[in-house]
Amino acid sequence: MAEECIFCRIAGGQLPAEVVYQDEQVVAFKDIRPVAPVHILIIPRKHIPDLTAITPEDKELLGHIHLVAVQIARELGLAGRGFRLVNNCKEEGGQVVYHLHFHLLGGRQLRILG
Ligand code: DGP
């Protein structure tokens, strides 16, 4: 855990969040500034600053995050309609919080990125 990291603090229960799913590896909670009817952040409990910091050790974790994303999408009725799973990496990728996270977006027609 990184003491100053807000997502570590959410994962540890020291900061409140609307948690929709959690297990020993990941936590999923509603984004504080939603840009779609469904906007959930899926984070590993492990502090990984950004996507470039992943290692081969994280392969299983990254697969697990995707399985959790699909499970949540299914539970929210998005699996048939479609959704988007996004990672913003570093400054030009639009990353603001430096704890790896994936945005699960859906519930409306999403436009081309860019
Ligand atoms: P990114 O730009 O990919 O780093 O997105 C960070 C997202 O995190 C952004 O959509 C807003 C969200 N966020 C920031 N602080 C908090 C918080 O304290 N609680 C929750 N639920 N979301 C947060």
From TrEMBL:
Tell me if Hydrolase is a UniProt keyword of this record.
Answer: yes
Highest taxon listed in the record's lineage: Bacteria
Q: Does the keyword Chloroplast apply?
A: no
Question: Where does the record locate the signal sequence feature?
Answer: none
Which UniProt keyword terms apply here?
Hydrolase
Q: Which InterPro entries match?
A: Histidine_triad_CS, Histidine_triad_HIT, HIT-like, HIT-like_sf
Query: What EC class is this?
Result: hydrolase
Q: Where is this motif: Histidine triad motif?
A: 99-103
Listed PROSITE patterns = HIT_1 (PS00892), HIT_2 (PS51084)
Where along the chain is the active site annotated?
H101 (tele-amp-histidine intermediate)
Its EC number is 3.9.1.-
Q: Which GO terms describe its molecular function?
A: hydrolase activity
Where is each HIT domain found?
Answer: 6-114
Q: From the Swiss-Prot or TrEMBL record, give the protein name.
A: Purine nucleoside phosphoramidase
